[in-house]
């Protein structure tokens, strides 16, 4: 079995690679290995949603997002760095 790149980890392509494994036992083992990255992606999405929700109360977040090239995550980073500097 030849595997290159990151497609083996994608939800869309993983079944293609799993079917190439010679036994159902190996397929089950690899399926279990997929649970960790899947869980990490899920936790990351939950954390991002919480960050955005909590940041809505801070007006500086909205001001940073008006700057070209600054998105939601960057605005939160800049907003919190500024807050830490204000309170030594």
Task: Outline the structure in words.
The protein is mainly alpha-helical and 88 residues long. The longest helix has 32 residues. It is built from 4 helices and no strands. It is elongated. The model has no long low-confidence stretch (mean pLDDT 84). The relative contact order is 0.08. Helix 3 crosses helix 4.
Provide a quick synopsis of the model:
The chain has 88 residues and is mainly alpha-helical.
Compile the SSE list and pairings.
Blueprint: H1 14-18, H2 24-55, H3 59-65, H4 72-86
Number of helices: 4
* Average of per-residue pLDDT values: 84
Strand segment tally: 0
The parts where pLDDT drops under 50 for at least 5 residues are: none
Q: Tell me the major beta sheet.
A: none
Topology as a string of helices (H) and strands (E):
HHHH
Radius of gyration over all CA atoms, rounded: 20 Å
Q: Structural class, from helix and strand content?
A: mainly alpha
């Amino acid at each position: 079995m030849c595997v290159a790149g990151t497609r083996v980890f994608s939800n869309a392509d993983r079944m293609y690679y799993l079917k190439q494994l010679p036994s159902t036992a190996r397929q089950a083992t690899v399926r279990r290995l997929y649970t960790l990255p899947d869980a990490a992606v899920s936790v990351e999405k939950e954390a991002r949603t919480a960050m955005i929700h909590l940041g809505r109360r801070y007006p500086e977040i909205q001001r940073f997002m008006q700057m070209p090239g600054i998105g939601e995550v960057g605005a939160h980073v800049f907003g919190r760095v500024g807050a830490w500097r204000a309170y030594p």
